[in-house]
Write a structure and sequence with these properties.
Radius of gyration: 22 Å
Structural class: alpha/beta
Number of helices: 13
Number of strands: 18
Largest sheet: 7 strands, parallel
Strand order of the largest sheet: 3-2-1-4-5-6-15
Length: 386
């Protein structure tokens, strides 16, 4: 790639796509185009980036875009994503939408002769009980984790599609598999977010509740989502005139409980705040700051081809920790002083997911942002949104 190359970032308004755009802009790339589904992001209103309203699930829309714009390089970061709740609830949507998105972009990239494509996947492609750390060759060596199998199958299909287009047509399509990602522009919706943004938001709301800051609780629901809920046959809408009782009901729905029973006098203590989290807290997870991921994928696009990388390459931090340990770190950074409990009736997912990143390190790249520094950056960004 050179600084004037026309580069298409599919899904540029999402967590990954927006980070790739930031990285490319910081390195002087000046001919960027991207896609959005609903609304053009305000942060780019005065920039030279062209945003197009593309329905990535529509082959007609994607082909029309490629025929008109003729990008030279493609970052395939568009996807339907979510946490364990969303993956386990919307199985058909996750497999269909993600297969269609990747199929349309990969095929159009071949059809219209782009020079190079980078396809972003997920570490959930590995077997549930994969040996640790997970090497690239462990793909398809065992059964997948059932709670995110549809998403994983779609991502595996995209890896194989890139490989087979390379083998049959001589294209230069590379695939990368990142660990769990987090960063600014993440999804903080408590119904379908991933674990780390959900923890940041839950502890932030719990902290506001402990301070009885109902104004900012209302503001948080307005900005981050979940302002309309159906709880026990009742519709709860969080707005400026919402009662304290309804706000407490909404918080309790998401595991932010407002009181606890005092065993000594059998009375409730209303200033004791507890945050309830799914599962046992014992699964291990690896996290990578999204701007580190963006730096890695741009580095690979600039320096390496399919012949150098192979079928795909892992991108991660190489360090994992338990959900319980992660929750304690987020709690401390946010400044929540209440308690944490775990709902063991809820699923844990894969017990351990640590990527082997030795291949990536051998190509000269390593992450630079520590987990605590990354969480602090995201929390500062989150609480200062308006």
């Amino acid at each position: 790639m050179n600084k004037n190359s026309k580069i298409f970032i599919a899904g540029g308004t999402g967590l990954v796509g927006s980070a790739i755009i930031r990285n490319l802009l910081s390195k002087g790339y000046n001919n960027l185009i991207s896609s959005f589904n609903r609304k053009k992001p305000q942060e780019y209103e005065n920039s030279l980036i062209k945003f197009y309203p593309i329905n990535m699930i529509s082959q007609l829309d994607v082909n029309s875009f490629f025929e008109k714009e003729r990008p030279e390089y493609v970052f395939l970061s568009a996807a339907k994503v979510g946490g364990i709740v969303a993956n386990n609830t919307y199985k058909a949507d996750f497999i269909y939408d993600n297969i269609m998105i990747s199929s349309n972009v990969i095929h159009a990239s071949y059809k219209y002769g782009i020079k190079k494509l980078l396809n972003l996947g997920s570490s959930c492609i590995y077997p549930k009980l994969s040996p640790q750390p997970m090497k690239e060759e462990y793909l398809l060596s065992g059964a997948l984790e059932p709670t995110n199998e549809p998403y994983a199958i779609a991502k595996i299909a995209a890896i194989k599609m890139c490989r087979y287009f390379n083998e049959q047509y001589g294209t230069n399509f590379i695939s990368v598999m990142p660990s769990n990602l987090y960063g600014t522009n993440d999804n903080f919706n408590l119904v379908d977010s991933h674990v780390l943004p959900a923890l940041i938001r839950k502890f932030y709301l719990a902290k506001l509740l402990s301070q009885e800051d109902y104004k900012n609780i209302k503001n948080d629901f307005r900005i981050a989502g979940n302002s309309k809920l159906h709880i026990d046959n009742k519709t709860v809408v969080i707005a400026n005139d919402t009662s304290k009782e309804d706000m407490l009901l909404a918080l309790n729905y998401f595991g932010i409980k407002t009181d606890s029973l005092n065993a000594n006098n059998n009375q409730y203590i209303t200033n004791q705040i507890n945050v309830s989290l799914w599962g046992t807290g014992t699964p291990f997870r690896e996290f990578l700051y999204v701007d580190d991921l963006a730096d890695a994928v741009v580095y690979l696009m600039e320096n390496y081809d399919y012949k150098d990388i192979g079928e795909f390459i892992n991108i991660g931090s190489g360090i994992d920790l338990t959900i319980k340990e992660l929750a304690s770190i987020v709690k401390r950074i946010v400044g929540f002083t209440g308690t944490i409990s775990f709902d063991v009736s809820k699923p844990d997912g894969t017990p351990k997911k640590l990527l082997d990143i030795s291949h990536l390190k051998s190509l000269g790249w390593s992450p630079s942002v520590s987990l605590e520094d990354g969480i602090t950056k995201v929390y500062d960004w989150y609480k200062n949104r308006s």
